[in-house]
Amino acid sequence: MAQSCNLVSSSQGQKADKSSIQTPVGITRQPKSSRITTQSSQISQMSSKTRDDLTARLVRYLLYKANRKQAIRFDDISKDVYPQYRNISRYFFEKACTQLENIFGYHTVQIEDASREHFLIINAITDQAHLSNIYQARQCAGRGFLILILGLLCCADNKQLEEDELWAQLKSADDKVERNQDHPVLGDLSTMLKRFENELYLRSKTQVNSELKKIRVYMCGSRAELEIGKEAILDFVCKVCK
User: Fold this and answer.
1) Ranges of Low complexity compositional bias (predicted)?
2) Which of 68, 113, 148, 221 could form a disulfide with 200 if both were Cys (CB 3.0 to 4.6 A apart)?
3) What is d(CA 10, CA 4) in angstroms, rounded to the nearest whole number?
């Protein structure tokens, strides 16, 4: 109790001298300059083969994430790829991103609205014939459904639609669309909608409408804007409306 009182009176009476502030026991604070030095020291001690192997390990990790349409959290790289090393992720991330683009045609883009460092791996090749071959090879029957949703969102007021209104517009475009019933070609559309959201093609939020009821609102996600683009989406809408 006396210790608490002393802390209060000290903070009220005068500002604490920074030199007198001690790091709590068990916690070591490492200055940024020290971390950079540690990183450089670790990497300089590695052989060329070790650096190549560690880069290849991260490239495989990023390709796996790209194939699953998952965002990459930079903080996860040390945990998932380099658990036995510290402070080397930045160096190898830059090397791996360069290889992804030069060899595989993937571009690494940071999500600007994320609270932490999040990245998407997207196809840097924009040739339509190339993209068509990819989608045919993957048998992406849901690709057209996704573009239809994005087109409806781009044409909506404020670029967003309430969930009920989105389903109503999808129904008007295809009378086989049912919210709680499998589509004869696409299957479970509710699950597909959730998958698009997990892949960041869509994003949603809950808000209260004028009747004070909670509703879900859908908008275009980061991946849709970076990978497909507004121009391609609107071009699709124009072709459909002709």
Assistant:
1) 33-48
2) 221
3) 10
The CATH number, out of the four listed (1.10.510.10, 3.40.50.300, 1.10.357.140, 1.10.10.1200), of the domain defined by the range 47-123:
1.10.10.1200
The pTM (predicted TM-score) of the whole model is 0.73
Alpha-helix residue ranges (DSSP H) falling in the chain: 2-13, 32-44, 48-67, 74-80, 89-99, 128-137, 142-155, 163-173, 189-198, 222-223, 230-241
Look at residue 14 and tell me whether its pLDDT is greater than 60: no
Residue type, 89: S
CA distance 172 to 138: 28
In DSSP terms, 178 is beta-bridged to 181
**In the predicted structure, residue 77 carries a pLDDT above the cut 80:** yes
Give the tens place of pLDDT for each residue, 124-146: 766 666 656 655 655 567 888 99
Q: Taking the domain 134-241, which CATH number applies?
A: 1.10.10.1210
For the chain, which residues make up each domain, given as ranges?
Answer: 47-123, 134-241
